[in-house]
Specification:
Layout (H helix, E strand, L loop, with lengths): L1 H35 L18 E4 L5 H12 L3 E6 L2 H8 L5 H7 L3 E5 L5 H8 L4 E4 L14 H20 L5 E5 L3 H4 L11 E2 L7 H6 L3 H20 L2 E7 L1 E3 L3 H4 L1 H7 L3 H6 L4 E4 H13 L7 E5 L2 E2 L3 H11 L4 H4 L11 E2 L2 H14 L4
Parallel strand pairs: 1-2, 1-4, 2-3, 4-5, 5-7, 6-12, 7-10, 8-9
Antiparallel strand pairs: 9-11
Family: Belongs to the 3-beta-HSD family.
GO molecular function, one term: oxidoreductase activity, acting on the CH-OH group of donors, NAD or NADP as acceptor
InterPro entries: 3Beta_OHSteriod_DH/Estase, NAD(P)-bd_dom_sf, NAD(P)_dehydrat-like
């Protein structure tokens, strides 16, 4: 048990070191701005110079996705309020204050607050003054052994509900981006002949099917996204949701174990019908920022996000190796048969991100 804990601590230290390196980069940009008297806007894709317009909040800010998103936002010129739900994570981040030069350069760029997703007043206080909120929905199993349980799904739904309500009750918040999952789109009765072979942002998973198959992670993401949309539409909050495939990246299975293991429940069926997809955490973070920056113009609704569909045994073997699991847990064997295969589409997100890139380079 001590060996496992030591390994977990090693990965936590690596994540925080990655974050520290980002602060170093941001500090260097700040010093360059001061030395050259240049407008920091030239170093970012964000159009606003107003410091209040540049302040955003990221929930679960020390999770695998949370840290990547904070890093991406900082490098795009945003000030970030990192929201965590326990004192231990607060202390981890505040240890960085010991690096005085870095912290002084970034002190107006990063702040840390604690609030639990079940506490409405705490969330409202955390969001106060922020232009936007990124709810990454990164829950972990407190016991560290049982994966993503049915009760965790219920907590996630309540957390999503509270975040949306808190956003609506906080005058400064204009936009909210919620991280859902591709699993909220793909779990349907695939034997139905009337299903379109194209799976895109308009597709929703079947709640009863998720319950029957005990796909608690898919069910949690599905219901959390649905309640968010229901409340946002009722109160008029501007919302977008991003539905990523399995989130990968450096040492992802160790740094994001709960979500990784939970996502791969049903992997053989997903692989068999062509719907097992992955996305690198850095691309996913960029997607969040691109969608957020386009919410006042073109961005709306849901966005599927992936950069690879696992379609061959070689690709499945590579993923299994990264996971440290037998390849047949992903692609099954020759006796598996699935009558229908589907095609995933993230064209909506690709079009948005390509427009963002063109605008960065001054192209039409």
């Amino acid at each position: 048990m001590g060996i496992v804990r030591t390994q977990e601590e090693d990965y936590e230290r690596k994540e925080l070191e990655d974050f520290r390196q980002t602060l170093v980069s941001v500090a260097a940009l700040e010093r360059r701005k001061q030395d050259d008297h240049q407008d920091f806007k030239a170093l970012t894709s964000s159009p606003s110079n107003n410091l209040e317009d540049k302040l955003v909040c990221v929930t679960s800010g020390v999770s695998f996705l949370g840290l990547a998103l904070v890093n991406c936002l900082l490098l795009h010129g945003y000030s970030v309020r990192v929201l965590v739900d326990n004192q231990e994570d607060v202390e981890k981040l505040r240890e960085m204050e010991n690096s005085w030069e870095i912290w002084m350069a970034c002190k107006n760029k990063v702040s840390v607050v604690m609030a639990r997703p079940t506490e409405m007043q705490g969330l409202m206080a955390a969001f106060d003054g922020c232009r936007g909120v990124f709810h990454t929905s990164a829950f972990t199993d407190p016991a560290g052994i049982s994966g993503y349980s049915k009760s965790m799904g219920e907590i996630e739904v309540k957390g999503s509900e509270n975040v949306i309500k808190a956003c609506a009750r906080t005058p400064s918040v204009r936009n909210c981006v919620i991280t859902s999952s591709l699993l909220a789109c793909i779990w349907r009765d695939n034997s139905r002949q009337d299903l379109s072979p194209l799976v895109n942002h308009d597709c929703w998973s079947d709640e009863s099917l998720c319950i029957d198959k005990k796909l608690w992670y898919a069910l949690g993401k599905l219901n959390a996204e649905k309640i968010a949309w229901k409340i946002a539409e009722e109160i008029g909050l501007k919302l977008t949701t991003i539905c990523p495939g399995l989130i990968t990246g450096p040492e992802f299975s160790y740094r994001n174990p709960t979500a990784t293991i939970a996502y791969l429940k049903g992997a053989q069926e997903m692989y068999g019908v062509g719907l097992l997809a992955t996305v690198d955490v850095r691309r996913l973070a960029e997607a969040h920022v691109s969608v957020f920056e386009a919410m006042n113009t073109t961005a709306c609704g849901r966005y599927i996000c992936f950069d690879q569909v696992i379609g061959t045994e070689e690709e499945a073997e590579k993923l299994a190796k990264e996971m440290g699991m037998p390849v047949n847990k992903i692609c099954g064997n020759s006796f598996n048969f699935f009558p229908n295969r589907f095609e995933l589409s993230n064209k909506k997100l690709d079009n948005l991100m390509s427009r963002t890139l063109r605008s960065c380079y001054g192209e039409n």
